Predict the structure.
Amino acid sequence: MIEGLLIALLVAKIRKYKLAPLFKEWTTYPVLVLALIYLYMNFSISQGNTFFIKYASVYKIVLVLIFGLMIIKYNLYKAGFLSAALIVVGGILNNLVIKANGDRMPVFPSLSYKTGYMTHETFKNLENIDSLHTQGSSASKLAFLGDWIDVGYTIMSIGDLFIMSFVFVIIYSSIKHLNKCSSKN
């Protein structure tokens, strides 16, 4: 989520859009709160606290609802349909690898071990709590669709990138829309 948000802000700035109108809107602040919660959840996991993992699906639902508010408020229906398509494609990719691996998502930590986000102990504890994720190995099927994109504080799959790219689409579209509206005034 953080990545999509930051990339949207960066691309908007590169394209000479003003960011200030976005931060004058109330709909931006629930997104920022969710971004902080996301960072806190990832930090907690790095400290061995797996409490929040069971709430990940609730977090995702709230995230989509909050972005839904932006879609409705700014009439971003094309961006909304594109975002929905990205989420569906990402979900299909994730479901393919999960089904191929006996209803488990193989995870291949690398950089996370070096940054301390993940330890071998934390991963073993995670497997006991989280019935979805499992340590990836050479026996993992469709491993290229598993969680292998390790950025040091989270490990994502190609499907996750599709799913989370909706954040970029909605934030960038919101900035573009708000700039168009402010130039008319």
Summary: The first strand starts at residue 105 and ends at 107. The chain is about 65% helix and 5% strand.
